[in-house]
Amino acid sequence: MFGKAAKTVLLLVLFCSWIGFSLGAPGSGTARAEDAAVAYEAEAAGNTLTGNASVADCAACSGGKKVGGLYQGASLQFNGVTVAEAGAYKVTVSYVSGDPRSANVSVNGGEKEYVEFPATANWDTVGSYDVTLELQAGTNTITFDDNNWYAPDIDRIVVAPASGSDPGTTPGVVYEAEAAGNVLTGNAAVSDCGACSGGKKVGGLYGGSSLLFPDVTAEAAGDYEIELSFISGDPRAFYVTVNDGESQLYDSLKTADWNTLGTYKLTVPLQAGGNRILFSDGNGYSPDLDRITVRPATQAEQPGADEGSIGDALTPVPYGAITVTPYTAGAVITNGSYSMTYHSATGYADYEWPGGQKVTGVSGQMKLDGQTLQTTDYETHSFSVQSVVPIHDGFGQGIEVVFVNEAAGKPTLKQVYDFYEGRSYFLTRLDAVSETAISTNYMAPIAVSRPDAVKSGQGTNDRVLTVPFDNDAWIRFKAQSVNRSDTSYEVTAVYDNDSRTGLILGSVTHDKWKTGIDWSGSGGKLNKMTVYGGASSSVTHDSQPHGSLSGTTVSSPTILAGGFADYRTGLEEYGKANAVVAPPLPLSADLPQGVPVGWNSWGAFGSGLSYQDVVDTSNYFHDHLPLMNNDGATYVNLDSYWDNLSDQQLGQAVSVIKGNGQNAGIYWGPFVYWGNNMSQTVEGTDGQYTYGDIVLKDANGNPLPTLDGAYALDPTNPGTKERIDYYLGRFKNLGFTYIKLDFLTHGSLEGVHADPAVTTGIQAYNEGMAYIDQALDGSMFISESISPIFPSQYAHSRRISCDTYGQINETEYELNSLTYGWWQNGTIYRYTDPDHMALSRAGSLTEARSRVNSAVISGTVFLDSDDVNDPTARQYMTELYGNPLVNGLAVRGEAFRPVEGNTNANAADTFVLKDGDSAYVAVFNYSGSSPAEKTIDLSRLGLSADAKYTTLDLWTGERGKVSGTLSLTLQPAESRLIKIAAPTCMQPKVDPCKSTKPK
Fold it and tell me: Domain segments of the chain: what residues?
């Protein structure tokens, strides 16, 4: 299930009015810095037209011609666009479009940028639209394609130096991937490539392959921009390593197809002289690489504005354990766990915790009518002790403090803070208040930009956690060095891995906004961070901007900011804080309690599921797997392609399952349409709605592009709701008591919704999911599959990662999500789902055991997915589902913590679950070909470094003794599940140290 590729934006869209040009000869010439402009006619003989594109008469157009027919896969390429110097150029597009249309624009086969062209007066009137493009010195191609929809008719383009820019930007030094001195390993190989410079590329970067540029020269040490020229017809990723340092993951790289070049820019630190830059696949699949271009990074970090003195202290005012101390030019608020300083002269705020965590120079921002309003730019900034309001809510007892920013002709911006006794965090939001209604799609309660603006507290091994919006397209969590830029969604952690001290910043309200956290750092310092509502990107899978919120008062998402001695505790506290605002979905007493245990059909049969497969599985689990249950409860779940069975067969299957004392589960995607017939009648609507009525559309009334091959349905449309009633009513009547809801992200996409009160994707998602919960009314265990992390209150479990089967690389992928997402378990969701265990897809029993271990420690939903008539599957199931100690650990439903959090986009290899003075530890070797020696410091597990412990291997029953460190030798793809306890906790065949923690 692939989402859209993340893009580095190479094209800045500017909507400008038409201005006059002094034109050179149409379709020829070279644009120079001193030249005004050069025009290129669309109908010129040297251009390339594909698909339906054709030249047509146009009386209003220059030359009397235009290129039209740009629809459903057509394109127009301007060839021979020549400039003397590399740099930024303004390209004015003259076009005709009687209705709003759009096009992808790309340069030299590079990254495409989606441009929306406003409608012209009619189909006989020429309009213009300006874009800024980066052109290379010499000849360029500029391509307009219709994005498989409808683009405007094009008259011509006019190319001129971009206003205020220097087109002589350093072109950089080019290093060809196929150069003789480069080092290729594994499957990597040079191959022909007509679109590539030099006619060659390096491909075959999969399964442990790499390409090394061994001698990339830098004149001086510092940050350098590396521009990749690559080809990748589906979303792929590179791991980039500089001078044998830490690898950085750059993911979701995609071009139009396997014949089209794209570009992507990244920034890396280089040393003076020679450097080694390695591109590797991380045992997955990477794009083919044409070349890299290396140039100095041009952006210098600004020092940041002076915050100003807060003056002299006045009389402190206590509010229980919280103290507000006003100053002559500010205030300091502390609860003993942190302090917040406000500078009323400038409007800046600072946060500080005892562990050294700091955020310096905080302001608020919003966008209004095309402008960014910043609180520190306002004329007055005020605070009054008299305005402090005591509060008591689910977070405890505290106070609410408001800092007011005012400026003539602008909405008042109120920075609202809620401080609580005994908490290591506070909550903040930004309110915009106006006498007349305002509308915005961007509000940032926390924005900082200055050197070293955000500090973890220690700084020896700093990490910034990038959290994905959802779990589609095998996306990964990333704990990255601060020396790069990225966007996290809903929450981030900034921490030192060695000491574990860190900061947590994340949203706790998910009713209106998608929250993004943009960050950037270099030189070991985190310099910029903006936490904002209004995120819309390829990672959220949106093709439209974030929707706008309107009113006389508009509020940002509420953000938690906290400092913790252990960032892991901080993330768990963040999860608990979200559960205060939106508690996890209760589990009906009529349903089996605890972790679901059983079987799912997808990994076993996929699209080939049959009635007999279901019957055979139910009987086999009943007859041969007596321990594969949770207190007697076993689920047999039909996944996608359950509709291979007739209604009669579905009813009979449920009867067989229930006759075996089991529970029946079903699968459905409530917000997706897999067809393409917009005239098809929607099931359950009595012919009142077609799919063309209920698919989610853009502002022009066009269906959104498909995601994962399916159209998104509008959750607020009455036809969608009637469809929900139809299917869920059908499932309930058949007797299903478990439902897996898939492709839910479609319901969160930005678009125009049927409910006029719903203006954002998350509002629509909330409405749709709440409707589903109401329709089910507690009759089923609800498991979310592909879905956003938030909102979280509509399901009992959520899959923590994308599809996972049985091989060790898949186990590692799932455990990456556990490494940085374990905190969802028991806080916002009752259980975190590691996906099904397809044991027979493993290459050995050892590899299959590692997949089981990964599921045991993940939270969990403990479902096999094998064909019970397969001899290998039977062997593995008998061996791996019959261990009472392992099964007992799984049904506790508690996710293990990662021991280390410095693994970038990979999984930790060691996980721990503390159990009083004891601990369970899981250790993995992710190599499928090489053994590994693992040494684990017991103090990193939360145990005493000096105490003597006994060990019990839960699989083999082998016992031992350990003190200080635990040393293990693991064979390829092997893992171990061990209990470490004081001697009195170990008794044969019993586990008296088992936690009694309720779930």
Answer: 12-161, 173-296, 317-581, 597-676+715-890, 906-985
Average pLDDT, rounded, for the chain = 92
791 cis-preceded (ω within 30 degrees of 0): yes
Strand ordering across the sheet containing 862-864? 831-833, 797-799, 781-784, 738-741, 663-668, 635-637, 597-600, 862-864
Structure tokens at 56: 């047509």
460: which residues sit within 8 A by CB, 6+ positions away?
496, 498, 499
763 class by beta-carbon count within 10 Å (0-12 exposed, 13-18 middle, 19+ buried): buried
Count CA atoms closer than 13 A to 43's CA, side-chain side: 17
Residue 18: CB partners within 8 Å, gap ≥ 6?
Answer: 92, 128
d(CA 80, CA 82): 6
Residue with tokens 């500080």: 352
Residue 809 identity? N
- Site of tokens 């004015």: 92
pLDDT of residue 985: 59
445's tokens: 């309660």
DSSP-derived letter for residue 586 is P
Q: What is the pLDDT of residue 364?
A: 99
Using alpha carbons only, how large is the chain's radius of gyration in Å? 30
Parallel, antiparallel or unpaired: strands 738-741 and 663-668: parallel
Residue 305's nearest CA partner among 377, 371, 356, 373 is 377
DSSP string, 324-340: EEEETTEEEEE-SS-EE
Which pair of structure tokens corresponds to residue 665? Answer: 């589960």
Instruction: Report pLDDT for 161.
Output: 81
Predicted pLDDT at 251: 81
Quick one: pLDDT at residue 881? 99
Please say whether the beta carbons of 514 and 534 come within 8 A: yes
Task: Report the C-alpha gap between 387 and 384 in whole angstroms.
Answer: 5
DSSP letter (8 states) at residue 674: -
The domain defined by 906-985 carries CATH number 3.55.50.30: no
In Å, how far are 282, 950, 962 from 984, measured between CA atoms? 44, 9, 14
Closest CA to 113 of 12, 253, 196: 12
Q: How far apart are CA 41 and CA 157, in angstroms?
A: 7
| CA distance linking residue 811 with residue 833, whole number of Å | 13
Domains 173-296 and 597-676+715-890 in one fold: no
Specify the CATH number of the domain 317-581: 2.70.98.60
Q: Domain 597-676+715-890 in CATH: superfamily?
A: Aldolase class I (3.20.20.70)
The answer to whether the beta carbons of residues 298 and 284 sit under 8 Å apart is no
What pLDDT does 168 receive?
37
Q: State residue 299's pLDDT score.
A: 56
Domain spanning 12-161, CATH architecture: Sandwich (2.60)
Residues of the chain with pLDDT under 70: 1-36, 163-171, 298-302, 984-999
User: Rounded distance, CA 528 to CA 494, Å?
Assistant: 12
Count the neighbouring beta carbons within 10 Å of the beta carbon of residue 17: 6
> Distance (Å, rounded) from C-alpha 537 to C-alpha 466?
14
Residue 706 burial (10 A CB sphere; 0-12, 13-18, 19+): middle
**What are 57's strand-pairing partners?**
65
Cβ–Cβ < 8 Å for 459, 479: no
For 173-296, CATH number out of 2.60.120.260, 3.40.50.300, 3.30.70.100, 3.10.20.740 equals 2.60.120.260
Distances (CA, A) of 229 to 175, 194, 684, 861, 892: 10, 13, 50, 42, 49
